[in-house]
Amino acid sequence: MIDTLLSYDFAWKSYATGQTLATDKTHIFRISVDHHFPKVKRAVEEVLSDRELEKAGRMFIQKDKERYIVSKFCLRTILGLCLEVPPNEVNFIFHEHKKPTANGIEFNISHTGDYVLIAVSPTPVGIDIEHLNRDFDFKSILDITFSKKEIDYIGDKDIDPTNFYVMWTRKEALLKASGEGVSDNLHLIECLDEHLEYHKKVFKMRTFMIEENYVASIATTLEQKELLFWNWI
After folding, report:
1. Please, which residues bridge with residue 150 across strands?
2. What is the mean pLDDT of residues 51-57?
3. Cβ(120)–Cβ(105) under 8 Å?
4. Residue 128: in which H helix or E strand, if any?
5. What is the CATH number of domain 6-232?
């Protein structure tokens, strides 16, 4: 039986705007919404598209609006650095299942609570972060979401719900990397292994803690052996 799928040895480095980003590698950026929203809100209209501004304007819950603005602002900034263009000139191309890319650069965003994670890569990538809610009663969805082996791995709620979020984020990251995004057969997509074949592509799975109460997973193609972890400052 697998003891844990979590890794704790990822080294987060501080990233300051202006550093060169190698476009042949996969980068993961950790961004605090509370820290960055006061900084970016003054320049939002200069960076976000009209469509993005309109969507932000329709959001009634302030925290949701702040997460959306920070995620779009930082994504455009990061892609602009990769493409060497101003953030407001980044153009998105939407493929099957509405999965976007930017001039050949793959990316994915996930956010919850105070954190936004942005992954950029030259090959398909998916990332998911979840806040570890220890009061969530997940037993009612186990059979429709997980395989028998995954349920055994998750264990009883009274032990520790962390493994539930490990498996959930792995499924989400895999589906996002594949471009599918959603599936009615989650229990058939078993995510216990390090290497997973899905839709004729093989992905490498990694799961890690952002801090004590945040679990995240990332799915990359096999050739992306080295991941670079950045704290966006």
Report:
1. none
2. 96
3. yes
4. strand 125-131
5. 3.90.470.20
Say how far apart CA 74 and CA 55 lie, in whole Å. Answer: 16
Confidence of residue 205 (pLDDT cuts 50, 70, 90): very high
pLDDT of residue 3: 57
Q: Any idea where the domains of the chain sit in the sequence?
A: 6-232
Which token pair is 232? 């966006």
Nearest alpha-carbon partner for 26 in 174, 178, 223: 223
Residue pointed to by tokens 């990694």: 206
142 vs 137, residue with greater confidence: 142
Q: 68-106: b or e for each residue (b if 16 or more CB lie within 10 Å)?
A: bbbbbbbbbbbbbbbbeeebeebeeeeeeeebeebeebb
Mean pLDDT of the chain: 90
Whose CA is closest to 79, among 101, 51, 56?
101
Q: What is the pLDDT of residue 183?
A: 67
Contacts of residue 125, defined as CB under 8 A and 6 or more positions apart, other chains included, come to 26, 106, 107, 108, 119, 177, 218, 219, 220, 221, 224
